[in-house]
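so my prof wants the structure for this chain in the tokens format not the other one, which i didnt know existed until like an hour ago. anyway here's the sequence
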Amino acid sequence: MAHSIVCDRAGRAPAPLVEGVGMLQPGGLSYIAGPVIAIVVMVLLVLFMRWAFGGNSTGGMRRGRPSPADDGLLTRVATLSRRESALALRAVLSDAGIRSTIRFPEAHRADVFVFPEDAARARELAASFPAA
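here's what i got, hopefully its the right format
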């Protein structure tokens, strides 16, 4: 039986494999390094996500309830004691073409807000609204 040696394009025979060279050694550091690196990366990702999306004061996206003075561009036109009444007033305002929103700052309290240019018309409708 004849053995043939496969040569590369330059006509050189491949280098013989030396056992243990270029391979992972049992009990070597490389068996533990991969999982340790993966665990460290996962822990760092979890810590970053808690910082970025957490609710503490040092970072994060959560905000507390807005203060009553922080109405932004909106004007309060009515304060109602029931959620259903506020939703009904909002429907009346919507039928009149007035954009509005509702804020519930406390239990049993609903504030209805509109943009300043619609505030006069909204107040008229709110005054004629039976639940207001």
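also thought this was worth mentioning. Residues 80 and 110 are 5 Å apart (CA to CA).
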